Amino acid sequence: MEYLLLIDGTYAMRFMAFLFPLLRLSHTIRDRFIEVLRKAMYNSESCTRIMGVFGFCSLLKQLKNNNARRSIMGPAGGNYTQLSISGMSLLSQAAYGSASNPNLHFDMLTLEVLGILRKCLTQTVEVRMMLYEALGRAVDFNTMLLPHVLQFIDWHFESYFNENTDDKLSIAFDKCVRYRNDIEHEDQPDLLRPIVVYDNVGRLTAFMVHCVVLCDHHNILHDTNAVKKTLQLIVDRVDSITFDELGIMGSLDTRAVEIASQYLNVIEAAMAYSAWKMKPDNGLSRDLLRLFKHHQQCVEKFKVHQHDP
């Protein structure tokens, strides 16, 4: 298992596909695999941390039965239990296990994994993007994860839109993309300074749309009204954001290119949300068409700015 930490993370992720059948057969292999993933999450190499996120999210796909059900069913209930759970799992179990929570006996191992993945929101943008992608696939396979995933990620999503009103949309791209501010580059003009990308708000918005759609489709008992309100505001107002508000003036530098790309991703997520809400009698096809045209116009304008002297 330790070999996964020594090879390139991309190859390690491919190798994992051959390990998952073994995890169902052996508690020892499963627990050893989890130990390796824990180490991967704190590795200095970004590709290894990405592998750790991928591994944990892939594991979540298979944790569908809760401990209470397995304790009744015995061996027929599945092999995914863990005797040595962490304090995070116990605290999460106590916090989530209430009479008002439909997942009273939600799997402790699942909660432990989600507690580990929560820390990815302080990691690099590559790790965060893998989290959005792999966790999106996990909730597809295991909808029981949705309330717990939304509980720890919706505040992160809202932090990029917390200065909005009902008639004004503002996206905090400055939290996602910044010029590097170190001693080596402090005397250089902005156009020549390298940038640091912390997050991709477009991918995050697409992930939130995906989760909200699944919650409604599967009748998951979780309050998504606040997220829906923000998503609807994006649909209604994203085309009102000016280039000046995006910080795009004159020719595109590396920071402006990254912000433009993320802005287009936000529009695409808004289009997906509009398409999901669209019905034959509610006229929301106009929103989808409006956003599509705005997306095309932005692409053309960005091309013009890119070639400006």
Automatic annotation (TrEMBL):
Residue ranges occupied by any FANCI helical domain in the UniProt entry: 84-182
Tell me which residues make up the FANCI solenoid domain: 1-57
Q: Which GO terms describe its biological process?
A: DNA repair
Q: Which GO terms describe its molecular function?
A: DNA polymerase binding
Q: Which residues form a coiled coil?
A: none
Extract the InterPro entries matched here.
FANCI (IPR026171), FANCI_HD2 (IPR029312), FANCI_S2 (IPR029315)
Matching PANTHER family? BC025462 PROTEIN, FANCONI ANEMIA GROUP I PROTEIN
What protein name applies here? Putative secreted protein
